[in-house]
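On clarity, I found the account of how folds are encoded harder to follow than it need be. Since the whole study asks how a given chain folds, the encoding of that fold should be made plain. For the editor and my fellow referees, an illustration may be useful. An entry of this sort, consisting of the sequence and the corresponding backbone structure tokens, reads as follows:

:::
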Amino acid sequence: MSASKPPAAGFAPLTTERLTLRPYCPDDAAELHRLINDWEVTRNLAAVPFPYSRALAEDWIRSAGESLAGGSAYHLVISGAEDGREIVVGGIGLRVDAAARAGHLGYWVGRRYWGHGVASEAAGRLARWALANLDLAKLRASVATDNPASVAVLRRIGFRHVGQATEVFLARGGEQDVLSFEATRDDLFGPPEAEPSADGSRPLLLVVACALIDIDGRVLLARRPEGKTMAGLWEFPGGKLRPGETPEAALIRELGEELGIDVATNCLAPFAFASHAYAGFHLLMPLFLCRRWKGRAEGREGQALAWVRPDKLAEYSMPEADRPLVPLLRDFL
């Protein structure tokens, strides 16, 4: 989705319970060199030679900063805390293939920190962040066949084995057999909620959505944040109906909670509806139009927002149920 810019500039560190994933800085060169200049580490990294010099560490930090600034790759330090001070424990990265809408995940951990779950914690965090915040449809990773620990990491965080190939490993001086892995949003965040009934029928899930249209004729889309199913996809704001709620009442409540705006019932105009069969349920979603509201729309649940011209809506990756509504809106507006 070319309309969405990668969040490279001013990259905010990612945190987990024990770790911080942050951009490299020049002061990391000595520790990076000390940890990665280890045969047991470099033998498992395709693009890293052995021995690994201090000069290579300094060059890598410079190139990582340039890639991060341009949004072509997100190479980060894995750091933790020990005795009240920050320590570098490894590195992690994601190379972006914009044409394929895919990211290639890689990581390494200093030998001293093996066996503590660092790789799984860091890789899972970056993978979930990437699918929720970048224009990616899938993530890829490859692991040497004689590296079972890394294979276990990928399986643990939700990657699927999809094939086998060969890659040149600089430290080993030649080609090495590797296992190929992939992960999609469903793999990492889970499929849409609900399960089929015992008789195979799908329960009906009723949700309501709104196309907010501003004075310039642009439509508001909200991006599902990390932690939700289908994270990273763009949708029309709205949500599920509570017991006893009308679609209009539910929509007014959801727009207030999600966006901080006040909408009157007489400003909601029924427009169309989506009917889509997901694996575990059937979704029915009436879509309303709204051109008048009070307040300024802002993402109050961590979601990014985008005001989009109707002819650009198709450029945004959306849930399957929302897609048929796009041409209807484009033609109407």
